[in-house]
Amino acid sequence: MALLIMHSYNKSHSSPPRGGNPFQNLEKTSVLQEARTFNETPVNAKKCIHILTKILYLLNQGEVLGTREATECFFAMTKLFQSKDTVLRRMVYLGIKELSTIAEDVIIVTSSLTKDMTGREDFYRAPAIRALCSITDPTMLQAVERYMKQCIVDRNSAVSSAALVSSLHLSSQHGAGDVVKRWANEAQEALNSDNIMVQYHALGLLNHIRRNDRLAVGKLVTKLIGQNMKSPYAVCHLIRIGSKIIEEDYANGTNTISDTQFLEFVDSCLRHKSEMVIYEAAHAIVNLKRTSARELAPAVSILQLFCGSSKATLRFAAVRTMNKVAIMYPAAVAAFNMDLEGLIADSNRSVATLAITTLLKTGTESSVERLMKQIATFVAEISDEFKVVVVQAIRTLCTKFPRKHSILMNFLSAMLREEGGLDYKTSIVDTIITIIEENLDAKESGLSHLCEFIEDCEHTSLAVRILHLLGKEGPFSKHPSKYIRFVYNRVILENATVRAAAVSALAQFGASCPDLLQNVTVLLSRCQMDIDDEVRDRATYYLAILNSNNPSLCKNYISSNDQMVSLTLLEKTLKDHLHGPLNETFNLALVPKTAPTPAIAEETHNDPMITTNSVPKAPRVTREEVNVERLLQIPGIQRLGPLHKSSPAVQLTESETEYTVSVIKHCFPQHIVLQFDCVNTLSDQLLENVKVDLLLPEGYIIRHVIPCAKLVYGEKESTYVILEFPADVSSSSATFGATLKFVVKDCDPTTGLPDSEEGYDDEYMLEDFEITVADQIQKTKVNNFAVAWDAADTEEWVELEETYSLSAVNTLQEAVQTIIKFLNLGPANATEKVAEGTHTHTLLCSGVFRGGAEVLLRAKLVLADGVTMQLTVRSTDQDVAEIVSSAIG
Amino acid sequence: MDLLEATLYTIKAMVIMDNDGNRILAKYYDKNVFPTAKEQKQYEKNLFQKTHRANASEIIMLDGLTVVYKSNVDLFFYVMGGKNENELILLSVLNCLFDTISLILKKNVEKRALLDNLDVVMLAFDEICDGGIILDADPASVQKRVDLRNDELPLGEQTVAQVFQSAKEQLKWSILK
After folding, report:
1. ipTM exceeds 0.95
2. Contacts of B42 in chain A (CB under 8 A)
3. What domain range includes position B120?
4. Phi/psi at A191 (nearest 5 deg)?
5. How far B25 CA sits from the closest chain A CA (Å)?
6. Using the beta-carbon criterion (under 8 Å), do B6 and A279 form an inter-chain contact?
7. Which terms are listed as keywords in the entry (chain A) (predicted)?
């Protein structure tokens, strides 16, 4: 019988269909069926090898075995230890390792493996050790400890390496670390081995064992530096250990003799004969924080050398590291831009793109022009995703060299005219919009480039965005009339969506430019004949408002739609309203307003690495939207009015205490809701009636307390306190003391059920927290700050001006960040970024105080021995203006 | 800022694919890198798309991994390491993987031969990298440890087979050129 099977098997094995994959159509069940052959005696080695290969292949393809299947298969496999066939035995080891995590009772093979590991056959010993360690748990480790120690120092390098590597795997297992620690002496001995891999593995294990003992690691490195290790891998590893010590010392502010010694060693590795080591050393030097320009020079020239290598990997490594140098020491790289420029046309596109971005980072203002010309020659040849990288680099350039905007803008518009997908075009349009926002000089040319683009734009979404932008910016440009032609062309030529957007844009011109009103009304009245409902509706709507000749109507319903209600929340409240009794009218004021989502410019800290996947942008859900859902559960919350703002969570306890509590402050026009999120980290306790007791500052009144009925171990529950703000706005920023009060019941940690019905009162001190001015202000984004600022120069507005000297900050950027943080205002005109090397700066920002009072702020900053600031606040409310201007002082 | 962690766990994954982007062998060594078979295959598909057109030894960054790769006839070999890993170490492993397999398959590195010797190739994988640690990077020594088969074909037959094989190979190359 066995012979017969073997025969047919041989036949099928020797003449499989040519070109096909003999493993292609394997069925898990039939292969596992075949595994029964393992039980036959004598073992047919060749056949069993083939079946084992099939099983391993299936596992490798992602096939999942159930515990029972795996265990059965595992036990069948143990029968194969009878065979003396070397390949078969080795395949069995592989099988053991693969199944050890799924099958049960795998320790059954311990004795067989121990026998192989201590036997005479070298081909078995090394892999047997590795297989054994995959099934050993810490409790059994004692039994094999003696063998492991012997194997670590074995003369056979494979055996020694296997033992060292397995020890390292074991030491990360829970509870095995201490046992492995006892093998340090053996590892130390193995370090002297002639075999390069044994050296490497021994160093790795020793370092791991001693990783928490800084002194011992230092000693180890010092000793090995003198020894001239043969293994390039080991030297690389040594460089890493050494640089870690150097970096830690540098961070701690200590500088020891050994640090200097290590540095010298890393430096000497630049002259090693292995490229791997040379690169490792150069990489370490570049990334060490304490590296000075002088120490950097040799590393950089090594990288320069690598740039000319014939191996793509070497060039890639060099340019990538150079890219990092460019961020920190642009001057160091600038010296050999020539080498980098040679790589722009590299056959490996990753190398080429890295070279460009590096060049753009190091480029000086004068070289921009030349560089852009160079890029223009090859930009057509690279794929869209790399073009996007180039566009991003240009965007950073624009921020860096605002004066070069015309060249860059021309380049971008040329790119815009070329063929390309939506993502690519979007990134260009984004960049142009950012430039327009940041650089007033570039506005006119940017807008006209965009106008040109929409004349022939196949992407509706982009056309709509640009039309919207034209409506916002166009009316305030020097010649608004010239944009109207472009906008109206869209009405004639495009699809309904674009036409509707164009109508809205036209209305903006009508509202903001009185001398064009006549023309706009004529154009809009033509749009009333449109075949599309939406277009007609918009035209009629805007015409009615424009014809009313009422400036405030125009302002509220056409020009200013900055303050948007959150659409998701609007949808939800409308739904709720429809489900309700429907006998009262819907109140729009109940829907919270949301802060405008910040511009895309946030992503400009582009990673130099080309992660070519496009990360799907998660829809931005604001804190307010998340919170409203929960807050609406609180009975009577509607009476407080619309939610103005929610602050981020603030921890009121250390993170690793019995109970952790954090607070989120929800600000309403006259009230504040404190949401305390509590977590109970004690598994043997059940807390009931949990609430927070507040120590109130003057003026605040507690309106309601909602305790949390039950706080089970590990769950996050909330308790609320609703406070009324003091009538006097100026005393609204205050500090609160807080204590957590609750009833404790001891309970069974496993079931969570209380031991008895009786509990006892207990309390837990929390840290103090503050309600600040920032908690009461919602950011707004004003597109034309100058216009808004001038418009605020009327009787309805209050202006306050004060001069402060800011002692706590040293740079202008720091000052700007502090102001924004303290007041939570939205910066306008990109004034939150301070240009490098300047001594004066003006920050413009805006927001809305709870209750609806608008706040505009202008801070003129001067840097001279600390920062001096002249703060001008304009607000519609006297008290608000006062509290804002005093918040900084 | 990006100092390399001093650890022996260098290799995140090794993969061999055929020229349709199907996995032949793949080993992922880091539990945090693509823990499920689905994610792994998705990544491989993505990787293959980005790399299959290049014919020389190359390198790419993809999803936060540094990947060095190499192709021969209808096979693609990939070795992956962390984002900041020393690319040359990865390259040395890739070269070892490729050269070992080339030794095992007697220079006939193509899908058919690889599948016929899958058992030995699996052993080679295991001898080059153990759980993410480079075990050996010398092709000759790896081959010595894994290629333990005795050629059981009679001499005459083997020669015919070999002649046939080399003729086939030559033919293939002449077509490919």
Report:
1. no
2. none
3. 11-149
4. -60, -25
5. 6
6. no
7. Cytoplasm, Cytoplasmic vesicle, Endoplasmic reticulum, ER-Golgi transport, Golgi apparatus, Membrane, Protein transport, Repeat, Transport
